[in-house]
Amino acid sequence: MIPDARESLPSPGLMPERVYTLPELRYPVTLNAGVELLDRNADGDRGGRPAIHAGERVIAYADLATDVNRLCHGLRSIGLDRGDRVLLRLPNVPEFVVAWLACQKLGIVTVGTMPLLRARELASIATDAGAHAAIVWGGLREELERAQQQAPDLKQLIVAGDAGPGDTTLASLQSGRPARFTAEATSRDEIAMIAYTSGSTGVPKGCVHFHRDILASADSYARHVLTPSPDDRFGGHPTLAFTFGTGGLLVFPLRFGASTVLSGPFTPESMLDTMARQRVTVSFCAPTSYRLMLRVPEMTRRYDLGSLRLGVSAAEPLPAATWREWHETTGVELLDGIGSTEMFHIFVSSVPGRVRPGATGFPVPGYDCRVLDEEGHECPPGQPGLIAIKGPTGCKYWRKPDRQAEYVRWGGWNVTGDVYVQDEDGYLTYQCRSDDMIVSGGYKIPGPEVEHVLDEHPAVAESAVVALPDPTRGFIVKAFVVLKEPRRSSPSLVTELQEHVKRELAPYKYPRAIEFVELLPRTETGKIQRYILRRADVVPYDPGRR
């Protein structure tokens, strides 16, 4: 038996203060996320309604509950129980939802892992989380089996999908088991999941979320911003292992008796086809994905997006140009939002009907957000500072009290490291990460501001800006640019882009160095890995190579 996960919580003195301003965020002491998300639908009048659409498969709530309950019995039969940590390594398939819900009902702590992670990364997470078992998709098992050599305590693999002789399979654990299961009476303050950050800074960290945190994100952001109904179909491409996907494609639809639409690996055409065929009403995608879909020839003629009522954008700031083009093309508003793995999901969001392109929006109901200077004093409107958050979710790092203290400071405010400006109307607008503020010749230049202007140029597909050391100015602005037509790269285009930025921004902000690249390095969740760009570990575009 693995020691109870609750023993590893950080000191209560470092826990963020909770702000419960909404009645629906007051939860009983005994609370189980699996019961709230699944059983309340399956045991009520929604049992026959669809919970999951996955290609041709449609799974109703009652059938989903049967699959989950049988797996609960099966997992317990092989010695897994409350407080254990189990890795989940599956793509966006119904089996992920079944496994996640079964673990929640048992009080097992889920540890989602991105499908693209390799053995070394998986071994590090398994060891850090103290996981002795993993549920893995057959096509993703190779790296996990290699990881077992570096994480000897990870002894037990449960295989879903294609399996081999002698495997313990998800199906075998479910076979012949009872269709009913009484969930563990977990506490609202008991760990439900450990979510590892995507590694945009190079070092993934485990973030702890309680049963109440999972529900609170749905009852604050989803309920008040997305206003879901049981008729909604939530779709998109973020992996279910990432909290953006866990919330948008699992927790939110099930919390409100709606359904989720699961799809395969993202391509612009496949995402548009899924949204059209499955009649998705609320989409969850990264800004880059919306831009790629807009480039599909005759997009709106080939794909009927008439069912779509809202699009959610996160993982990176949503450029105003992308918002306008999507809205002009589809008539649908994109809602920009900022969240973090530490906070579980979005805590600042645009509001339907009140979107200001380029601005992130307002604090989500239930959250209090301030813009603070380096000493913790609130900044006046128009002055950039660090955004700090209090609310129904908050940072709780797994076994990293020092990192926790750094993130949670100034009386319990969660400080993400993002620089924001709040205007007189209350709109919060992203500037940059605190470590992305480029100081050049005494001037402070937010890198994303330059990126947004570069992205407006008709030749540019996307860009990323970093600080490049310079003996005279300390640092200069360097832009890595992906072109829509790569063969256009030339010294004259460099000059044209520099002049474009000078026309739109103060001249000192223009990129003094521009490098054309084929791709920007990204995490699996879509975040640009600027630390890689800073060490220039990218492949320049060579027009003679093709």
Structural class: alpha/beta
Q: Rounded to an integer, what's the Rg over CA atoms?
A: 23 Å
Q: Strand count, sense and closure of the main sheet?
A: 9 strands, mixed
Name the CATH class of the largest domain.
Alpha Beta
Q: What is the general shape?
A: globular
Give the domain tally: 2
Distance between the termini: 57 Å
User: Oligomeric form of this entry?
Assistant: single chain
Q: Order of strands side by side in the largest beta sheet?
A: 2-1-11-10-12-13-14-15-16
Mean pLDDT value: 88
CATH homolog superfamily of the largest domain: ANL, N-terminal domain
How many distinct beta strands? 26
Give the percentage of residues in beta strands: 15-25%
Number of helices: 16
**Helicity, as a percent range:** 25-40%
Low-pLDDT regions? 1-18, 537-546
Shape-level CATH architecture of the largest domain = 3-Layer(aba) Sandwich
CATH T-level topology of the largest domain: Rossmann fold
Description:
The chain has 546 residues and is α/β, with parallel strands linked by helices. It has two domains: 5-422, ANL, N-terminal domain (Rossmann fold, 3-Layer(aba) Sandwich), CATH 3.40.50; 441-545, ANL, C-terminal domain (GMP Synthetase, Chain A, domain 3). 29% of the residues lie in helices and 24% in strands. The chain has 16 helices and 26 strands. The strands form six sheets. It has a nine-stranded mixed beta sheet, with helices on both faces. A hairpin with a 5-residue loop joins strand 20 (413-422) and strand 21. Helix 1 (33-42) crosses helix 2 (61-77), helix 1 (33-42) packs across helix 3 (94-106) and helix 7 (211-226) crosses helix 8 (243-255). It is globular, with a radius of gyration of 23 Å. The model is unreliable at 1-18 and 537-546 (pLDDT under 50).
